[in-house]
Design goal:
The protein is an alpha/beta fold. The protein has two domains: 129 residues, Rossmann fold (3-Layer(aba) Sandwich); 73 residues, Sandwich (Jelly Rolls). The protein is 16% helix and 36% strand. It has a nine-stranded mixed beta sheet. Strands 8-12-10-11 form a four-stranded antiparallel beta sheet, with no helix packed on it. It starts with a strand and ends with a strand. The relative contact order is 0.16.
Length: 214
């Protein structure tokens, strides 16, 4: 089945010039609260703008043809979580979040949890990343990923489970064969790609794979 991609623009600092992920004409584009400012600054017209607009102060004047959803301030989800759920109901099988990293640590941790939730869905796994241009994060479990050598200098693995086993890293400065990391001992940080790409394989456990410019 062909994947349907959604782009969700959220709050937080975004380094526009380093964001290489750009939507195509057929992609669903959602802005969550202050993510509307990011999208418009980048010349991107959303399909949907939503949020409680506590950051913007008031719902924006989005004009005709753009769906506006005003959410209550007191709710059981964040604006970004709501946007992710909405993307799923609109058929998204792949999501790119722009923003949501850096700044407040609680917001960043919430973003990482969304990645895990999307991967672990029983209905269907959703491939997702968060990026602010200088950082990019994804979640994998019992799986692998190939990281192309782009503008990110480092990549790190952050264990989501008490113990992650069978880790193999190839094409990087610090290769690994059948290694393991612990949730309480996160040592697999600041690795570097030395070729065209790096291969990451995880036999057992979940990790966040985080790429960083500096």
């Amino acid at each position: 089945m062909e994947r349907k991609k959604a782009f969700i623009y959220t709050g937080g600092t975004v380094f526009d010039e380093y964001v290489i992920e750009r939507p195509e004409a057929t992609d669903l584009i959602i802005c969550a609260d202050a993510g509307y400012l990011t999208a418009t600054r980048m010349g991107i017209t959303p399909d949907i703008v939503l949020g409680d607009f506590d950051t913007l102060g008031a719902p924006p004047d989005v004009g005709e043809g753009i769906e506006l959803q005003v959410l209550p301030a007191e709710k059981g989800v964040t604006d970004t979580q709501y946007a992710a759920s909405l993307a799923l109901t609109r058929g998204a099988t792949e999501i790119v979040f722009v923003g949501g990293l850096g700044g407040r640590v609680d917001h960043t941790l919430s973003s990482l949890a969304i990645l895990e939730m999307l991967w672990e869905r029983k209905e269907r796994r959703v491939y997702a990343i968060f990026t602010d241009g200088k950082n990019r994060a994804r979640f994998i479990r019992n799986s692998g990923v190939i990281l192309p050598h782009e503008h990110y200098r480092y990549f790190s693995l952050i264990a989501a489970d008490e113990k992650v086993k069978g880790i193999t890293l190839e094409g990087c400065k610090y290769p690994l064969k059948n290694g393991q990391i612990l949730r309480t001992h996160q040592w697999a940080v600041s690795n570097e790609i030395v070729g065209n790409c790096a291969l990451i394989e995880i036999k057992r456990g979940g990790v966040w794979v985080i790429e960083s410019m500096d």
